[in-house]
Design a protein that fits this description.
By secondary structure, this protein is α/β, with parallel strands linked by helices. It has one domain (7-279): Spore Coat Polysaccharide Biosynthesis Protein SpsA, Chain A (Alpha-Beta Complex). The protein is built from 10 helices and 13 strands. It has helices spanning 38-48, 63-68, 73-79, 89-97, 111-117, 119-122, 143-154, 215-221, 232-242, 260-288; strands spanning 7-11, 32-33, 36-37, 53-58, 99-104, 127-130, 134-137, 157-163, 173-181, 184-192, 203-211, 245-249, 253-256. It has a 5-stranded mixed beta barrel. It has a two-stranded antiparallel ribbon with strand order 2-3. Strands 7-13 form a two-stranded antiparallel sheet. A hairpin with a 2-residue loop joins β9 and β10. The chain is globular. It starts with 6 loop residues before the first strand and ends with a helix. The model has no long low-confidence stretch (mean pLDDT 94). It binds 1-O-phosphono-alpha-D-glucopyranose. 1-O-phosphono-alpha-D-glucopyranose binds next to β11.
Length: 289
């Protein structure tokens, strides 16, 4: 079956204030975990899910993202044929396999608004949304791949969720629903950043969505909610009430790289992983000799 999800939208206009001063002149999506910027992890996850068109909603001061997914002739020229050339292998491969399109969110009016800004890049088709500061890793399939599989079965909007400590509900969109298969919930309620006392559950939305294109009209009708911003969570609740929205407890782990704590945890995790991978490679190479 061909992949019904052809495009992935990356809302990337936010200021990244929690990482100031690092994010003063550098987009937060370009902060590296080891040597790779957060947004490249996201693009690679989308690619692994069979999605080749990346639609990026940027803002002022975000040009480095476009430059990252482009050829740097001077750099290529300098290191071609040298021992350093392999450092560019991964990003070259991403650039070759994907197309990138960009639009700007002129005013910061919330995640729902950012997604609506991407409408022209997406068109009338189901699409994925990936928030690059939620960095995910899984020993089997990537989170977006898991969600694409689910979309093929249910053909409706899907949000990824995970269990969080109840006291953290005011940092996330939180859902409530009926579990129709293990780990798959039919959404009945959805609230943006509720206080723990009123949160409908401890199942938090993380930055992976598959959305059907009727969401654009719903967002247009959605009034500003939490923080005076247009929330995708509110639009999705409307969609759930009109039809069906699923919430999916993904397999794998997720790091909140929008926080210093999560960023450091991600760095340690990927560092340990890279050491293990190097050792495995070394063993393989020795075996060949
Ligand atoms: C956004 C969404 C929220 C979701 C979160 C996941 O919030 O509005 O529903 O739980 O992403 O990271 P933000 O973190 O941008 O404030």
């Amino acid at each position: 079956m061909t992949n019904p999800i052809k495009k992935c939208l990356f809302p990337a206009a936010g200021y990244g204030t929690r990482f100031l001063p690092a994010t003063k002149a550098t987009p937060k999506e370009m902060l590296p975990v080891l040597t790779k910027p957060l947004i490249q992890y996201g693009v690679e996850e989308a690619l692994a899910a069979g999605i080749e068109n990346m639609a990026i909603v940027t803002g002022r001061g975000k040009r480095a993202i476009e430059d990252h997914f482009d050829i740097s002739y001077e750099l290529e020229h300098q290191i071609k044929g040298t021992s350093k050339e392999h450092y560019l292998t991964e990003i070259r491969s991403v650039i070759t396999k994907c197309t990138f399109s960009y639009t700007r969110q002129i005013e910061m009016k919330g995640l729902g608004h950012a997604i609506l800004c991407g409408e022209n890049l997406i068109g009338d088709q189901p699409f994925a949304v990936l928030l690059a500061d939620d960095l995910c890793d899984s020993s089997s399939k990537g989170v977006l791949s898991q969600m694409v599989d689910l979309y093929k079965k249910y053909h409706c909007s899907i949000v990824a969720i995970e269990e969080i400590p109840k006291e953290d509900t005011n940092k996330y969109g939180v859902i409530a629903g009926n579990e129709i298969e293990p780990g798959i919930f039919m959404v009945k309620d959805m609230v943006e950043k509720p206080e723990p006392e009123v949160a409908p559950s401890n199942l938090a939305i993380i930055g992976r969505y598959i959305l059907t294109p009727d969401i654009f009209d719903i967002i247009r009708e959605t009034k500003p909610g939490k923080g005076g911003e247009i929330q995708i969570t509110d639009a999705l609740l409307t969609q759930a009430r009109k039809g069906m929205v699923l919430a999916y407890k993904f397999e794998g782990q997720r790091f909140d790289c929008g926080s210093i704590d999560g960023f450091v945890k991600a760095t340690n995790y990927f560092y340990d992983k890279s050491i293990k991978d190097d050792k495995k490679q070394e063993k393989k190479d020795n075996g060949k000799k």
